[in-house]
Amino acid sequence: MDVPAAIDTHHFRRVMGQFATGVTVVTTAVGPRLHGITVNSFSSVSLTPMLVAVCLDRGSMTLPLIAESGFFAVNILSHAQQEWANRFAGRGEPVPDDFEGLDHRRAVSGAPVLLHTLGWLDCRVSSHFEAGDHAIVLGETLACEVGESGDPLLFYRGHYGRVHH
User: Fold this and answer.
1) Fold type of domain 23-162
2) CA pair distance 83, 96, nearest whole angstrom
3) Given CB 3.0 to 4.6 Å as the disulfide criterion, which of 65, 66, 84, 143 pairs with 122?
4) Where are the beta strands (DSSP E) in 32-115?
5) Taking the model in full, what pTM does it have?
6) What is residue 87's three-state secondary structure?
């Protein structure tokens, strides 16, 4: 069997960009400190038990906070919430508090959930492991809720998009 030539990371990103993903904001809280990050690498894993996975850059500020708290929430964004995705990705107008001006509340775990999203899941970390430059965090769902209706915010070919239903 021939060994394929090394793949350029830019080429890999272009190929992966062909796969449309939803956009979420993953949140956690350590005491009074709330934190969130935009994540498009999110998936349902199992129904029994109800597990989800999020993939986070190992260098992110979020990963040690989730490890410390043991909890996280996943907030599913609508197309109308692109500004929120930018804010939690560090691309929006700088604000002293990422949650400033956003309606939110604490879920069962204490992690903040953003109101007016398409839905959210509140999770307890069940396991995590390193996978290259990212960590895969599995969470057991403690609570979840369907939110408002609307078109989901998608990420495709390096840009936000939408699907009409």
Assistant:
1) Pnp Oxidase; Chain A (2.30.110)
2) 16
3) 143
4) 33-39, 42-46, 51-57, 71-76, 104-106, 112-114
5) 0.92
6) helix
